[in-house]
Amino acid sequence: MDISESLKKRYLTIQNNRLANVFKVQDEIVSSIRAFLKGEGFTEILAPIIGPVTDPGIRGARQATIDYYGVPFKVMSSMILYKQMIITALPKVFALSPNIRLEPLETVRTRRHLTEFRQIDLEVAYATCDEVMDLGERMLCQVIVDVKAKCHKELGERCKTLRVPTRPFKRYTYKEALEVLKGIGMSVKYGEEIPWEAEEAISNVHAEPFWITNYPVTARSFYYMESEKNPGVLEDFDLIYPEGFGEAVSGGRRENRYEKLVERMRRSGEDPSQYGWYLDMLKVGIPPSAGFGIGVERLTRFICGLENIWDAVPFPKVAGVLSP
Ligand code: AMP
Ligand code: MG
Question: Quick one: DSSP state of residue 167?
């Protein structure tokens, strides 16, 4: 069966014992993250599913729109704008947040893109990048410790090759990452997002997770804080898994100043008038914050050592495939 046929017949392939083991590991991953974040003083909130606007920074994917009483509403591509609202009430929050992104058809080839996926999305008022990066490192290490201890049988052979990473994780700036890429024969133009193949290539030459920080303003969305010391560069970060598994996390410090945000929206080609409630909220005032989202299916793929992300979710949705 080709990928498309096997995904359309999920009611057959889902009976495979290998998948049942993956879903048991995934259950432990989510439990472990919840326990870890509760221990760090976080409150879990319910994620929004639809709203007038959603995250525009989704790298060539289209947003899904529904008719909401005659008004077009978006299905969340990420809850970033809402995280900036909730931290006015709760300083440390997270949600298991479902996202829809109509990814380009070619993303089937990356083996790490779904069109419906979930993030553990967290945000901390007044935090720095370093603080949430440290939290992310400890969280990933704890999840791996817990899964290795509790899912030995389900992980099978992967239990041996999956090691608890050494902290602190290595850090490259975006600029340094382009140098690493050049060294392995991949040239990426400064100012652009790192393409899927290059992301996989740099991941492939690492045996431990690592960070890429300080992307150029032109590569990312308006809500990341631009560095005061280093204009043109953002206070943001991605965590990249080793062994070719690619991006795990994106996050950063958030811009919270109304004027700056409007200017950044204009620079990134967004129409501020589309962001009614969000800009009204900024005029009232919100605290600065930092946070990140970690894709649950990608984390499962990495932990279980799966070739394809569609085996890391019970009911996969892959670009262009009309599966259940
Ligand atoms: P982003 O804000 O676009 O970086 O998304 C946050 C995280 O969600 C990423 O680091 C991935 O772990 C995950 N993610 C993003 N897009 C997808 C996708 N199409 N399929 C599965 N996971 C995704
Ligand atoms: Mg990202």
Answer: S
The verdict on the CB of residue 293 being under 6 Å from ligand 1 is yes
On whether residue 90 sits in a domain, the answer given is yes
Task: Return the closest-CA partner of residue 201 out of 179, 219, 186.
Answer: 186
- Identify the domain containing residue 37 by its residue range: 3-167+248-312
Asked if 296 contacts 122 with a C-beta cutoff of 8 angstroms, the reply is no
Q: What is the CA(118)–ligand 1 centre distance, in A?
A: 8
Is the distance from the beta carbon of residue 313 to the nearest atom of ligand 1 less than 6 Å?
no
- The answer to whether the bond into 242 is cis (omega within 30° of 0) is no
Using a 6 Å cutoff on CB, does residue 249 contact ligand 1? yes
Task: Give the pLDDT of the chain (324 residues) as one tens digit per residue.
Answer: 688 999 999 999 999 999 999 999 999 999 999 999 999 999 999 999 999 999 998 999 999 999 999 999 999 999 999 999 999 999 999 999 999 999 999 999 999 999 999 999 999 999 999 999 999 999 999 999 999 999 999 999 999 999 999 999 999 999 999 999 999 999 999 999 999 999 999 999 999 999 999 999 999 999 999 999 999 999 999 999 999 999 999 999 999 999 999 999 999 999 999 999 999 999 999 999 999 999 999 999 999 999 999 999 999 999 999 999
151 domain residue, yes or no: yes
Q: Is 210 within a domain? A: no
User: What phi, psi does 55 have (nearest 5°)?
Assistant: -60, 120
Q: Ligand 1 centre from 80 Cα, in Å? A: 12
Per DSSP, 226 falls in state: B
* Domain CATH code at residue 138: 3.30.930.10
Q: Are 174 and 218 in contact (CB under 8 A)?
A: no
Nearest CA to ligand 1 atom 13: 295
User: How far does residue 234's CA lie from ligand 2's centre (Å)?
Assistant: 14
Q: Name the pTM for this structure.
A: 0.98
